[in-house]
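Thanks for the sequence, V.! I ran PilT domain protein right away. Repeating your input here for the record:
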Amino acid sequence: MLKALVYIALIVLGIAVSLMEHWVPALPPPLSGLHEWEAQTLVGALAGGLLALLLTNLVSLVNRQLSKEGGARQLLQSVLASFVGALCGFVLAWALGVLFAQSPLIRALQGALVLSLTVVGFIVGQRQENLLGEIFGIRPPAPPPGSGPKLIDTSAIIDGRIGDLVKTGFIEGKIVIAEFVLSELHAIADSSDNLRRRKGRRGLDILAELRRSNEIEIETISKDYPGVTDVDRKLIQLAKELNAKIITTDYNLNKVAKVEGVPVLNINELANAVKPRFIPGEEIEVEVIDKGEEIGQGIGYLDDGTMVVVENGRRFIGKKIRTIVNSSLQTEAGKMLFVRPKIEPQKWDQ
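Predicted structure:
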């Protein structure tokens, strides 16, 4: 709606200025069949429409640029480059006016020169990453390692551990939350499934707590991709544009992002990496809570969630016992320990 109003306003302004300034003093052959006011109206409407098109596209470009990491610097560089282009255009327009007598055609050429060189300067400033540095021999400072933006996925928010990770200082830089991720989180918080609803609301509470704590910079970005329906695809595309890493617990997103060259910080992988490592022969205490798949096996868990398979441990269900580590197995789902009781079952029962 606002875009349409801008077009209408500038077209009306173009017509008014054309009628007052007489932009077409002598009607060219294509317009010779029109009255003078009709020709002036047509030319003014075309000029206003062209100006509206350029203005709306420029505003859209500025908005996209500012949403990117380092976008403000790139935009400043583009404005300076367009200023240099406009200056060159004015110089050439002045030279054209000196060489040729003034006429409507010469004035049109002068205006076209200034406008085209201004646009060329802006485009050059957009496409060159470090144009000012190349001109003046200045290199942009290298960002500290790990200080780049981190895009957070819905799965990492509802997981609940992201708040503790931020508090410990393991995550550096800025956390970026996309609007489409927030929309998905709100949908989960409004789910009819009780467990999903509780997880969604916990995720919203964690985000609110992080914003209040000011322990890390959090930015919400409204960038979206209307042609893409899958949230994971949107997240990967946004990470490429922002040169950001993705924080997630989603196994599939983790794999796809790595295939496409997007760095991923997987909370599950971090959790597995910091779990204590046990060697065969080491003693651990575990509570046997259930029976295993094999005959006589018992199952227990360590405090960090590591599954422990207890050989001949079924008769110890409901008890805490000392065990000796036989071996360990690392899988995508996590780590498993295989242990045996330190004492024989017969001795325990005695």
